[in-house]
Amino acid sequence: MRVKKLSARLAAVASFVSAGESVADIGADHGYLPIYLVKEGISPFAILTDVQEGPLEKTRISVGKALSRDSKEAGLISLRLGAGLSVLEKDEVDAVVIAGMGGETIISILSADPDKTKSFGKYILQPRTKVQELKNWLFNEGWEIKAETKADEKGRLCDIIVCAPQ
To answer: Computed from CA positions of residues 149, 152, 158, 160, in that sequence, does the dihedral angle turn out positive or negative?
Structure first.
């Protein structure tokens, strides 16, 4: 099956994932980003998470449609039910994507378990709201903002922040 074309927003997020980086997509929704990263050979594996079974089932369906059960890619995506980073092991992935949530929700996820949060080397954040509040939190917590950009989605500019805990 062909890889679904990503929206400009998700393509911009994907552009910050370096070849060879494993990825966790927190609140993966439809799963298009990790599916793309794995199918294109950018990421060796991806973890898709959601806090609710309904959205995770939607993701499971997307993954099933995009990846044949017999394909090598099928084993490269793991779906997990749970809140934020709680379903990940420390250092389990190279990059964590948290996209399409409010800035306050992203702050809550990042601050829930600071020790685990700091074990991941790169974060690609795409807050829907409270962007400045999130940036202030990152600054106050000593995070390094490595890159920022904006991407259009249906006429709305979305902020993307690439950062790392220190």
So the answer is: negative
